[in-house]
Amino acid sequence: MKFIRDNAGTRPFFAYLPYTPPHGNFDIPDGDSAWTIYKDKPWPESARRYAAMVTMLDRQVGEVLELLDELGLAHNTLVFFCGDNGGNDYFKSAEHPRGIHLANKNPRTGVEYRGTKGTYDLSRDPSESKDLAEAQPEILTRLTNLAAQAHEPVIEGTFASTDSHERDRRAKFGRHDEPEAPTQPRKKTNKKKAAK
Predict the structure, then answer these.
(1) How many other CB atoms sit within 10 Å of the CB of residue 52?
(2) How many helices (H) and strands (E) does the chain have?
(3) In angstroms, what CA-CA distances link 6 with 9, 43, 49, 176, 186?
(4) Which of 31, 89, 128, 183 is the most exposed place for a label (fewest CB within 10 A)?
(5) What's the rounded Cα separation, in Å, for the pair 96 and 128?
(6) Helix or strand (DSSP H, E) at 133
(7) What are phi and psi of 153, to 5 degrees?
(8) What gap in Å lies between CA 42 and CA 5, rounded to an integer?
(9) 33-46 per-position pLDDT tens digit
(10) Before 22, cis peptide (omega within 30)?
(11) Which of 171, 4, 172 is nearest to 79 (CA)?
């Protein structure tokens, strides 16, 4: 918000907001107004927290759009909102086999999408009931070959510093303005002492 205010009317700008929620640990500070909407719903707590995170995100994006209006920028600003995932069937149960929030069900038509995030040709086969691998073997072969060519063996990585990771974790719980936690130096093992 500060970045947009600082650049409003002075020059064109690009603001990228990589929101994390709803993701990972389904949690939200109890003091957030979104939690009060869902805290008494008859759902598992994680499902209530997830819904609150979605509402929090909706509110925060709305605040950005309202700021663009306030600054007179809405008429010449492009806003793109997209996600890197499709719907997922979180919080499944016998009563809700597609998840409490029905992320994979079209609320208007009732059509259920077969897959979860990372799969759905929704215009032709929303339930993905047709086996395209069998119907189009040449495309399957081409894709399999591309995957084989692109494959690289997994190489174990290491963290020299966990500062960025810990900052992201704090932001997830609404503590993004806290001073950064001091980096914990990696412990070195004295192999000679360890051998004794």
Answers:
(1) 26
(2) 7, 0
(3) 9, 42, 34, 20, 40
(4) 31
(5) 20
(6) helix 132-135
(7) -60, 150
(8) 41
(9) 999 999 999 999 99
(10) yes
(11) 4
The SS3 assignment for 143 reads helix
Which tokens go with 64?
A: 């950005």
Q: What does DSSP assign to residue 42?
A: S
d(CA 126, CA 55): 26
If 0-12 CB within 10 Å is exposed, 13-18 middle and 19+ buried, where does residue 189 land? exposed
Tokens of 111: 């059509």
What distance separates the 2 farthest-apart alpha carbons in the chain?
73
pTM of the complete model beyond 0.90: no
Cα 53 to Cα 172: distance, rounded to the nearest angstrom: 10
List pLDDT tens digits, range 93-150.
888 888 888 877 777 888 887 766 666 766 778 777 888 898 899 999 999 999 999 9
- Cβ atoms of 112 and 103 within 8 Å: the answer is no
